[in-house]
Structures are given as C-alpha cells and as structure tokens.
C-alpha cells in the first residue's frame, strides 16, 4: 500500500499553486469546531461534521473553464460547452497530452483519465 511521506500534502499544494497551472483560487473559511454544535459531539456525529466541512469547502470553490472542459471531455458530453471556448478546450487537450507524454513508462490512458478526473473533480463536487 502507498504511504504518504511527511509533508507530502503541503508540498503538493505548494507545487500545484506555483507550477504552470493557469488560474488558481485559494479560499479559507471559518473552521468547523465543537462550538458550532449545541450538544457535545458523539462518534455518530462524525458524518455530520464531515458533511459540514465538505459543504464549506464546496462553497469556496471557484470553477474555471478548464474544470468544465475536463468534465465534458471525461464524460464524453457537451453539458458545459457554454462555459469554455473550443480553442480553450483544444489548448487544454494539448497541454494534457504534453504533460502525460512527459510521464514515460506509465500507462498513458490511465494517466489521461486521472488528469481529467483531477480537473473535473470540482465540477462533480459542486453537482
């Protein structure tokens, strides 16, 4: 099984923000804490807390044209074609192909799917 190295998540965030990624939006909201609840939390309340955390995260999302294009490419549809231009979609696909090509020795189709899932994920979460 895969075990994350210490600091790996933080390094991924920093790399993602500082690398050539296009538009980036960072949103920080008020924390979810025990004071938000009228009674002491029990183990059975964990799902409600997780739901509240997810809701706060999703409310902070700013979706970009690349998110919508990736969703449509991944799902083989044109549901959000009004949210991006044909040239943007083409540029996105070229960048994706170039990024995947640089990952030698790995399954290109699996990487393509993962790449699209990463960009389309925020759209799925908001749906």
Explained architecture:
By secondary structure, this protein is mostly helical. Helix 3 packs across helix 5 and helix 4 crosses helix 5.
Task: Describe the structure concisely.
The protein is an all-alpha fold and 127 residues long. Helices cover 56% and strands 0% of the residues.
- What low-confidence regions span 5 or more consecutive residues with pLDDT below 50? none
> How much strand content do the residues show?
under 5%
The 3D shape can be described as globular
Number of DSSP helical runs: 5
Major pleated sheet? none
Computed Rg: 18 Å
Residues in helices, as a percent range: 55-70%
C-alpha end-to-end distance: 31 Å
Integer average pLDDT: 88
Give the SSE map.
Layout: H1 8-18, H2 46-59, H3 65-75, H4 86-101, H5 108-126
Question: What keywords describe this structure?
Answer:
single chain, about 130 residues, mainly alpha
């Amino acid at each position: 099984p895969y075990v994350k190295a210490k600091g790996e998540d933080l390094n991924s965030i920093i790399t993602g923000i500082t690398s050539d990624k296009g538009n980036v939006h960072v949103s920080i909201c008020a924390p979810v804490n025990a004071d938000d609840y009228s009674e002491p939390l029990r183990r059975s309340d964990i799902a409600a807390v997780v739901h509240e955390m997810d809701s706060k995260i999703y409310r902070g999302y700013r979706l970009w044209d690349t998110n919508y294009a990736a969703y449509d490419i991944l799902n083989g549809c044109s549901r959000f074609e009004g949210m991006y231009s044909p040239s943007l979609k083409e540029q996105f696909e070229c960048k994706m192909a170039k990024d995947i090509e640089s990952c030698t020795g790995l399954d290109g189709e699996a990487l393509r799917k993962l790449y699209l899932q990463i960009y389309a994920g925020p759209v799925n979460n908001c749906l």
